[in-house]
Amino acid sequence: MVWKIFKDDIKSVFVNWAALIVIVGVLVLPSLYAWFNIESSWDPYSNTKGISIGIANNDRGAYLNGKHINLGEKVVQSLKKNHALGWQFTSEKDAKSRTENGEYYACIIIPSNFSSRMTSVLTDLPDKPVIQYYVNEKINAVAPKMTFKGASGIAEQVSREFERTASTILFSVFNDLGNELKRDLPIIQHVKQMVFWLEGELPHIQYAASIAEKDTVKARQMIYTVSAGLEELSQINLAGVNLNHAAADYLGTVKRAVDLIKPQFKESLKILSANSDGLSYKYGKMQDQSVSSEDKQEIIQSAESLTKAQSNQISALKNILEQLNSRSGGQNLSPFIIRLDSIISNYHNQAQLLVASKAGDANELKRLETQNGQLLFSLLSDFDKALSPEITIASRNAKIHADQLRKTIDEQLSAIPETQDLLRKSIKAAATSVKDIKQFQMQLPSIEQNIRNMANRIREFEKNNDVNQIIGLLINDVKKESDFFAQPVLLKEHKMFPIPNYGSAMTPFYTTLSLWVGGLLLVSILAVDTEVPGVKQYQLYAGRFMTFWILGLGQSLIVTTGNILFLHIYASDPWLFIWSGMIISSVFVLIVYTLVSLFGNIGKALSVILLVLQISGSGGTFPIQVTPMFFQKINPFLPFTYAIGLMREAVGGSVWRTVFLDCAILILIFFMFAAAGALLKRPLQKMGQSFKRKLKKSRLIEH
């Protein structure tokens, strides 16, 4: 009897052309619903250049270490090369007016004192710069989120540019010193060779002095041989004095560089500590049940951006301390580096929790940020009495090699005039008379001692230090090192299930939604119940369902194949995508058919209510974790949850354990509603007769 009902239905379709037209319309309409929605949202984030944002730069610039900089102009030049948003460069008055009128979605005003406030970090009264951001939120609900991301990117870019400029100055000082030492290295080597040569000639001088009385002429010749180097020693003495002055200038330059970096370091700690308080406040708002899901999502996005900025800034501070540690050859700054490592680790954990976007993790986020706040406060509290002195000590140790070299050269240079004077006196004595040679012999031990002391000091220095290595440490690529400190950490993205466009990513949701709408169209246009003499209620239920089921499969095939062939959506497994649509359509048609078969028009209303709940509670658009708690609670009980999940496996890439689980739950739902329809059809039919007759008498509502 079930099969007979089904055959009669199919026969009625093909023998009645009007019914055939309606059936074709019912089959095609759900696919149009899906296709129009998917096509309209195909790739919206690649077309954001149409989002107009006004930019007004009033910055007058400032001087940093004698160099004029204009950070506002740098921002403008950078934005002119950036086509992610529709930047419109204009005056402040025009930007505000167009934003108010709706021509611009937002505008950004860079104040006239922007650069001067930015460089005030190097003064005793630092003053944070403020970029004014105006947004017209009534134009569109999504556009303000896009424009705010652009404004946040500008602030981050400015901070990175300033860090690059400050670090460039510091490394330029070290680089200039290294180049000076490299330029004067031949003079240093010449001084060393001359001292060693004099040391090697001492035995000859001693021998000449011992036989001077017997062979005055030979003694004079030997002394003249030694004195021949007097003129060259004078030249070396002059070059050494110049080198000594260069080394003294270097020591002063290093001191100025350290004085430049300490106040900046302390101000960075203050900013980081203030930002930490801001993060703690955001995490507190995430725990507040009165805050809407959209506001929480915005808080999470803001926290992600701020956490990343905090981590990058702390990494830059840590690298500065590590550089000072390595250059000084000590470990005085290691305790402070360990504290910064702990903070970076906490921010890494926070970033992972924020990506997961679990509402229950707000307590853990706040705990981690409380630890960071305490660590930053301790660093700031210890700065003047502990960290600042240690930085000074580290910089002093970094200069120790250059200072040793300067000291050694200074000692050598101080001995050269004395040696020259002694040799001149000896020459004069030898030239005057043989008796004066005895005076030279008395002075010779002092000359010998001075020369040997100089040679020993040079050997000791070369044993513990390498001038070329010191020069190598000082001479670096200033641009590369400043770029490193401006952005010490890079983020490399790995897509586990890549989907090339937003339209394909939204296909599971819109396809699932269209299949439910298709079921509603079927029960709205086709008759669910009909009078067939001699047929039991469960037979009528099953026979008519076969007709609805076949039509639902037709709707599914048109939607899924059309998505692939007409829209060219990306599907990792096209066949699984088509089969998933058929399974989902079967379940949805049965649910809607059963509700209407049991409850009539009330069943249609129940189907619509269930549709509304599933649109909000299935996690098809926003992650379910950002929705209110009510929708999170009902999510596991909604058919859409598993239907969309099954479609996503076919589109993005299959994890077969998830595929089987979603299929099993959908099949379980199918059999639950099938059993309910077969068992409750007859009892509810008798109970609902009086209710239907009452509704019919109203002449307003069909039964």
Q: How would you summarize the topology of this molecule?
A:
Blueprint: H1 2-15, H2 17-40, E1 52-57, E2 62-64, E3 67-69, H3 71-80, E4 86-89, H4 92-101, E5 106-110, H5 114-119, E6 132-135, H6 143-183, H7 185-210, H8 216-227, H9 230-286, H10 293-328, H11 334-356, H12 362-398, H13 400-432, H14 435-464, H15 467-474, H16 478-486, H17 502-525, H18 537-565, H19 574-599, H20 601-617, H21 629-634, H22 639-652, H23 656-687, H24 689-697
Parallel strand pairs: 1-4, 1-5
Antiparallel strand pairs: 2-3, 5-6
Helix pairs in contact: 1-2, 1-18, 2-17, 2-18, 3-6, 6-9, 6-15, 6-16, 7-8, 7-9, 7-14, 8-13, 9-10, 9-12, 9-13, 10-11, 10-12, 11-12, 13-14, 17-18, 17-19, 17-20, 17-22, 18-19, 18-23, 19-20, 19-22, 19-23, 22-23
Describe the structure.
- This protein is mostly helical.
- The protein folds into three domains: 2-42 and 501-697, no CATH class; 52-166, abc type-2 transporter like fold; 215-494.
- The protein is 76% helix and 4% strand.
- It has helices spanning 2-15, 17-40, 71-80, 92-101, 114-119, 143-183, 185-210, 216-227, 230-286, 293-328, 334-356, 362-398, 400-432, 435-464, 467-474, 478-486, 502-525, 537-565, 574-599, 601-617, 629-634, 639-652, 656-687, 689-697, and strands at 52-57, 62-64, 67-69, 86-89, 106-110, 132-135.
- The strands form two sheets. It has a four-stranded mixed sheet, sandwiched between helices.
- β2 and β3 form a beta hairpin.
- The protein starts with a helix and ends in a 6-residue tail after the last helix.
- The model has no long low-confidence stretch (mean pLDDT 75).
